[in-house]
Design goal:
Elements: E1 3-6, H1 26-38, E2 41-46, E3 50-52, E4 55-57, E5 59-60, E6 64-71, E7 74-81, H2 91-101, E8 109-112, E9 116-120, E10 125-126, H3 127-132, H4 139-158, E11 173-176, E12 179-182, H5 196-205, H6 208-218, H7 223-234, H8 239-248
Antiparallel strand pairs: 1-2, 2-6, 3-4, 5-6, 6-7, 7-9, 8-9, 10-11, 11-12
Length: 253
């Protein structure tokens, strides 16, 4: 059963330490509780496939911990900035998420403060796990998801937003309702040269674990042709070159 903790009861609950993680400070927790109220957060729900000190969470990274929460009567993802994070605010990440949302990529941004990010809660499977559950009969579904994913990361390339972690995307791409969703923009940048499409392709077809899983469903493209298509795309990032890459991958009918 999912445990729901109203905001007014969060401090003192078994999840209260997450307000000031990984080093608890009561004063910090109280200040952050004020921020949560300002964002309209009503409660925290303890659920997720990860856990910290036995408390279920949606995710944990170098910058923050992600919890399920209730805000405005809806279930959302709440990112809490770690007190030892290498940045002073989550506004920077929110700015990048707004850029991604502008091309219909990423979880929808609902609100932000210095220490919290309120986002759409994406409920699905990590891409690596979803692909691992497929067989040859599911080749069409996998082709559609890969094609959709490449379209999404191409849109990020076009607006100059590099995700930064898609070459090892085990925890950065989910499949929800048959649709690939890109999450966690804490390492994104509008300064670096974009490599979203090439990073995803390398992850899918050169990462050993993913290569084996994808290959067991689809078969694999010829290595030289794939490298040539990736080099061509990297030199121009155009829709035409994306189409050439999709052709090599057998995604174009």
């Amino acid at each position: 059963m999912i445990e729901t903790i109203p905001i007014d009861g969060l401090i003192g609950s078994r999840a209260g330490f997450l307000l000031s993680y990984p080093v608890y400070d009561g004063g910090v927790a109280e200040e952050r509780l004020v921020e949560l109220r300002g964002l309209g957060v009503e409660a925290v729900e303890l659920q997720g496939r990860h856990a910290i000190n036995g408390v279920p969470v949606l995710g944990k990274g170098h910058v923050g911990v992600v919890l399920a929460a209730r805000a405005g009567g809806r279930l959302v993802a709440l990112k809490v900035r770690r007190v030892d994070a290498d940045r002073e605010t989550l506004e920077w990440e929110a700015d990048h998420l707004r850029v991604a949302n502008g091309v219909s990529v990423g979880p929808r941004l609902f609100g932000v403060s210095r220490n919290f990010l309120l986002m759409e809660l994406i409920e699905g499977e990590y891409l690596v796990d979803w692909v691992g559950g497929l067989g040859p009969a599911d080749a069409g579904s996998l082709r559609r998801v890969i094609g959709d994913l490449l379209d999404r990361v191409h849109r990020l390339d076009m607006v100059g937003l590099d995700h930064g972690e898609l070459s090892s995307a085990h925890r950065h791409v989910m499949v929800a309702g048959g649709v690939p969703r890109i999450i966690d923009f804490e390492s994104a940048s509008t300064v670096r040269r974009c490599s979203n499409v090439t990073s995803v392709a390398h992850y899918l077809f050169f990462n050993r674990r993913m290569r084996e899983r994808v290959g067991s469903v689809l078969g694999l493209p010829e290595r030289g042709a794939l490298l040539g298509a990736l080099a061509g795309y990297k030199s121009g990032l155009s829709g035409e070159r994306l189409g050439a890459l999709k052709s090599v991958l057998g995604l174009v009918e």
